[in-house]
């Protein structure tokens, strides 16, 4: 029918399905990576096409955040009577600008609501809090899809920044904030007090000795910070729940011998073993997020010299121990980018990124080469 043909053409134009193969079965529908992502994340095909065409290798955090809110999934966010004026007023409290003429756009409103969330800015009316929760609920799958679209295009740095935006959404903090501020009840003056103890980053607390934690406990009790006993306990509980992960990496090399049809090729399998050393819990400590959140991880292999994302997997929840394997092929361009000799080792980077905490990412280096011997 005409409707079916139109839908198929729209999906083909959005690169969600392949064009019909007239040489084989013209009625066979083959989905693409973008089509699979739409199905998995319940995304509009327009969103997948938009991300695919607009996520660039060097996109910054603000650009990627703006792209997120331009997704079709935010098109139904209500903009009620006179809310365009309230959006303009809210924009005055947010660091990233908007176009005044677009103040009645649901996408612009979403952009402002996320900025207010990151800056913990008070919203003008109760309806805005409802809308903000709705936007946050949508954001998880949209950001996960953005990561996968960036990975499909091989954009390493864009993918890492999108993951960083996800962490900001969960913890209600900007990407440039002190990582200590994601702890409940911790304020800027307290960050300076933490620094006097040698604690300037959230990872310092995750790895803190008993002596340091005793000093932190004493600091929280200081009258100048006005923390009630239950609030002090909430800070300490959040510290104990930070994901302290031990990582073990091993690499296996495989060589496909040369044949009459194909040249010799080299592939690698990276085995990653993750062991949680800190307390486990069903949900992350994220009191400003719209709902209870599972802790998930991305494991990424990248080449910093070329900016290429080589391989990626996502791990849903790490209660105690998990293993992940990523397989990838050797690329001669890696050696060329570094001016390496044939058969010489070149470094690839491995990133372990938690989607729920700022500053708890880990990075390692593995050595690979293209030698077929």
Write the layout of secondary structure elements.
Layout: H1 2-13, H2 33-41, H3 45-54, H4 61-69, H5 83-91, H6 106-119, H7 126-152, H8 156-171, H9 188-195, H10 202-206, H11 210-220, H12 229-240, E1 245-256, E2 265-276, E3 296-303, E4 308-316, E5 321-329, H13 332-338, E6 346-354, E7 362-368
Antiparallel strand pairs: 1-2, 2-5, 3-4, 3-6, 6-7
Helix pairs in contact: 2-3, 2-7, 4-6, 5-6, 6-7, 7-8
Folded structure, characterized:
The strands form 2 sheets. This protein has a 4-stranded antiparallel sheet with strand order 4-3-6-7. Strands 1-2-5 form a 3-stranded antiparallel sheet, with no helix packed on it. The protein is built from 13 helices and 7 strands. With about 375 residues, the chain is of the alpha+beta class. The longest helix is centred in the middle third of the chain and has 27 residues, at about 125-150. Helix content is about 40%, strand content about 20%.
Q: Are there runs of 5+ residues with pLDDT below 50, and where?
A: none
Strand residue content: 15-25%
Helix and strand element order: HHHHHHHHHHHHEEEEEHEE
How far apart lie the N and C ends? 57 Å
